[in-house]
Design brief:
Layout: H1 3-12, H2 36-41, H3 67-71, E1 78-84, H4 89-97, H5 103-115, E2 124-127, H6 132-138, H7 142-154, E3 157-158, E4 163-165, H8 177-183, E5 188-190, E6 202-210, H9 214-225, E7 230-238
Parallel strand pairs: 1-7, 2-3, 2-6, 6-7
Antiparallel strand pairs: 4-5
């Protein structure tokens, strides 16, 4: 998203007027363009989280891995989640399906604050790619909007043309873990001639939601196979342990 586009969006949809979750009136002092009630009721990843995928664990949870990560290996090194999905469902729905591209600014700021000092551990930010015909139909790739803003906020390089989606995939919602893995098998690739952008790099993939990790695993495997030193990810939200969203 270019600077001019952001300015135009701010004029049409001033981010300081309406809460991005419930739509209530707010003012410019509200952090992340959230009203006090939504900010308070969101389930933030401020406590104990899975050390692999980053999903929220209860403070009394016995262990360092969630149930899924305890039973499955992942191609990515580590994940960061900012919220539990159920608490911010309306934000993600509005951002992905209702054309509210201006939400990207608040989401990127949430991710920036979640990463904090960890941002210095990466060389570049990459968005999870969309299938191009699907992206043209929607008009934007939500991960690309967030990724560009996050890179600017962290000072990291931004690369939105190295990781590509080779084919369309079915919607993940409602699919089980094995079906999700099959759905994204061979769906991603490193673009021709872009191997040098990956080799030896510490990469951070941006997406909106983490559920079973099938998409992010598929992306991470492609990048590590191409020579990436490490691949991590950050998402706005992760489903609760055992959830299938």
């Amino acid at each position: 998203m270019g600077a001019l586009t952001r300015k135009l969006l701010d004029l049409v949809f001033p981010p300081s007027i309406y809460c991005i979750s419930c739509g209530n009136l707010i003012d410019e002092t509200r952090v992340y363009s959230l009203c006090d009630k939504c900010a308070r009721e969101f389930k933030w990843a401020n406590g104990k989280t899975c050390e692999k995928c980053g999903r929220i664990l209860g403070d009394d949870y016995n262990g360092t891995l969630c149930g899924e990560c305890g039973q499955s290996a992942h191609a990515y090194e580590k994940g960061y989640a900012c919220l539990e999905y159920g608490s911010c469902r309306e934000v993600i729905h509005g951002f992905k399906y209702l054309g509210r591209m201006y939400y990207a600014e608040s989401i990127a700021q949430i991710m920036h604050d979640r990463l904090a000092e960890a941002a210095s551990e990466f060389d570049a930010v990459l968005p999870t790619p969309m299938y191009k015909p699907k992206e043209r139909k929607r008009g934007y790739n939500q991960a690309d909007l967030i990724g560009g803003l996050l890179a600017a906020k962290t000072g990291l390089d931004y690369d939105n043309d190295t990781l590509v989606r080779r084919r369309n995939t079915a919607p993940m919602s409602g699919l089980g873990k094995e079906a999700r893995e099959e759905n994204v098998r061979d769906a991603f690739a490193v673009a021709e001639g872009k191997a040098d952008a990956v080799r030896g790099k510490r990469l951070l993939i941006v997406d909106d939601i983490y559920t079973t990790g099938s998409t992010l695993d598929a992306c991470a495997k492609v990048l590590t196979d191409a020579g990436a030193k490490s691949v991590c990810f950050i998402v706005l939200a992760a489903g609760a342990s055992g959830a299938n969203v």
